[in-house]
Amino acid sequence: MSREPEFKWKQCLIIRTDVKMSCGKKCAQVAHAAVMAYEHAGKEAKKAWLSEGQKKVVLKASSERALYELKTAAEFAGIPTSLIQDAGMTEIPPGTITALGLGPAKSEVLDQITGDLTLL
Fold first, then answer.
1. Where does residue 36 fall: left (phi above 0), alpha (psi -120 to 50 degrees), or beta otherwise?
2. What's the rounded Cα separation, in Å, for the pair 100 and 32?
3. How far, rounded to the nearest angstrom, does the alpha carbon of residue 62 sit from its chain's CA centroid?
4. DSSP notation for 64-109
5. What residue spans define the domains of the chain?
6. Separation CA 13–CA 16 (nearest Å)
7. d(CA 119, CA 98)
8. Closest Cα to residue 102, out of 6, 28, 10, 1?
9. How far is residue 47 from each of residues 18, 43, 53, 89, 111, measured CA to CA in Å?
10. TM spans, by residue (predicted)?
11. Rounded Cα–Cα distance for residues 7 and 9 (Å)
């Protein structure tokens, strides 16, 4: 029986639950958050995360304020962040904050910030 791999690096992608979005819209917003947060990461974090298989965890936040609080805590910890604002071309009004991307960063540091959130 093989052991599960140990992931030292990951991304946390957080979607708002108080904004009505279809499943596809949520997926698109999370994808934007993943790409943009990755773009803000340093070379070492990118390399380590890519070499481990790019672990991602998708979590829920109850409000825009919650996303901003998580973003502030992550920035204070030196974690790359990306707050996603929708263009408003399909389901929701322009400028709506929908998602937050954190990392890639060390799993243990992200867990301190996002450990109370539930999985999507």
1. alpha
2. 9
3. 14
4. HHHHHHHHHHHHHTT--EEEEE---SSSS-TT-EEEEEEEEEEHHH
5. 9-114
6. 10
7. 16
8. 10
9. 35, 6, 10, 35, 20
10. none
11. 5
- Number of C-beta neighbours around residue 40 at 10 A: 13
- Going residue by residue through the chain, which has 120 residues, state the pLDDT in tens, using 9 for 90 and above: 567 778 999 999 999 999 999 999 999 999 999 999 999 999 999 999 999 999 999 999 999 999 999 999 999 999 999 999 999 999 999 999 999 999 999 999 999 999 999 999
Residue 12 corresponds to which tokens in the numbers above?
A: 């946390």
